[in-house]
Amino acid sequence: MVEHSSLDTMFLSKYCPHSSSSSSSSSSSSTSSSDREKRLLRALRGSLAKKYPQKSGEVLSAQYGINLLLVGVALMLALAYRGPSASEETVLSFLTALMLVQLIWMVCYMVRRERRRSVPPERDAQAATSWIRGGLTMLALLSLIMDAFRIGSFVGYQACVSIMLGVYPVVHALHTVSQVSLQFGVIHAVFTNLLLWSNGVMTEAEHALNDHKRRLSALGYFNFTVEPEEPTCNCTTSACSIFSSSLYYLCPFNIEYHIFVSALLFVMWKNIGRTLDHQTNQKRVPAGGSCLLIGPVLGLLALASSITVLIIYIIHVEESVEAREAAISMFYCFGIVILACMSVAGALGLLIYRVEDWPMDTTPNPARTLDAKLLLGSSVGSWLLCWCSVVAVGGAQSYPSYRWSNLAYALLLVLEKCVQNLFVIESLYRRRREPGECHAHSTTAHEIFSVTASMAPPYDGIVNHAFESPDKHQDVLESSKTDKHTYDKKTKDVSLAVGHGAQDTPSRKRQVLKNVAIFLFMCNISLWILPAFGCRPQFDNGLEEASFGFSIWSTVLNFALPMSLFYRMHSVASLFEVFRKI
Q: Quick check: 312 and 535 in contact, CB under 8 A?
């Protein structure tokens, strides 16, 4: 007891120097006692925060998120098997509970922030650009339309379906609106969206597999029993069929929305506790004289051609064997042409980088690092399909008209993704050399055309104040005023030089790079549209299915096709960022 009391006295003497005199005085008031307790708790909280490193917090959050993801995946796999362990209502109840937890957290955070208005709000410059918000809002609107159709379908079939089929789209709509307007990079939100993405992928894959079974049964290849996707009771409204058919056309957008949000929130989570450089928020003055003609024209031509191929394919693949083979051959011929053009365009961009020798941008950037890893990781799905096709063509016992075009398409797809990955990643890690910046990177040029720590304004990024005491935060605010004055003085000194550099007319090689970026941008949209809306010859050509068997090949497709779709949409976002950066 004596030792414990001495420790308490030392602690109070360190953080509350007037505690002994206040306690000895018989006239101490309850107000001073309350202030003393607040200071003690504040000091204790700050001491604990210092002893708990940020890396440990990241590891703890990551473990929580991974286990949350695995629980959801286990439920979805049990649902896919159609066993007694899990039903559709079970999965939807689990996802609804996760979304409600996230919504409650958002509300609590907003209430807490309103009470602490003196603290400046955290901002993530890497996750708040206008084009990111615009793309996210567009996908969110399509997801909301999908929720409205789900609610309409539930109203028509409410006599014979579970109440969760009506609760889930309502909660999902609230969740979507809240996420778009209030973005918080917490790990629970990241993995909640990953589970929603996984649920959408499995639903869409099941629908595509049932369509494939129906086509095989109609052509007499197999005799499959396809379970009905709609409820068995009669619909009470006349729009149920419209709602059901429209859901599968909106499903790809909902899938891309959730994976897009997951990547965005993951970057925000990684940025917690970091102060980003001012370079993230710098906006270049648009350079005049840019000739963007060839890239957009060729890109629009590819987009129009892909829509035409999609319509013809969907119509003829349901018909006779001859029409089916003609539709598959048409798809492969179109794919060979567009992939060859994309490979040449990407190689041209890489050649320009080698000739120009642009300097590397080594600024730490979690968003850019994640982009590179996602591009390489999501390429695995398409590469697996390609090499399976090569093996299937090499050992094929039948000789359909599209056999060798399938082989050429597979090899070109591997080459195109390799070249495009190199071009996108190198573009993200390059920065253009400004006029007046010498190749030796002199000190003067480095100070003018790059941003150092001394040039970055205070609080221009994300600063996590969760474990800071108010006294410490007040000191940070006071010191930031001095930093702000220094920053304003430095930016004033160099503003003239930067302004002259930004007005420089772009070179011809830079114009070529812009055309390459916009052409690849449009082509990736085209190659996303085809499989997203039902043009999937991997299901219909029969070569791979004959080599690997129906069950194995269906498993491979259910794994690889979602990754391929994600790759194309992520490439679209990355190429737009490349276009803005060039």
A: no
* Structural domain harbouring 180: 53-113+128-221+235-272
Token representation of residue 97:
């509970």
Radius of gyration of the chain (CA): 29
Q: How many domains does the structure of the chain reveal?
A: 2
**Contact status, residue 122 vs residue 462, Cβ threshold 8 Å:** yes
Residue 69 lies in a domain: yes
Q: Which residues contact 324 (CB under 8 A, 6 or more apart)?
A: 219, 316, 317, 540
Torsion-angle region of 458 (φ positive above 0: left; ψ -120 to 50: alpha; else: beta): beta
Per-residue pLDDT of 86-132, as tens digits, reads: 888 899 999 999 999 999 988 888 888 778 766 665 656 555 567 77
311 and 250 in a common domain: no
Give 518's strand partners. Answer: none
Q: Is 436 left (phi over 0), alpha (psi -120 to 50) or beta?
A: left
SS3 360: strand
Residue 143 lies in a domain: yes
Residues 268 and 309 in one domain: no
Residues paired with 360 in a beta bridge:
430
Measured in residues, the chain has a length of 582
User: Which residues 6+ apart lie within 8 Å of 573 measured at CB?
Assistant: 132, 135, 260
The tokens describing 496, both together, are 């003239």
Mean pLDDT of 311-315: 91
**89, amino acid identity:** E
CB-based contacts of 133: which residues, under 8 Å, 6+ apart?
none
pTM score of the predicted model:
0.72
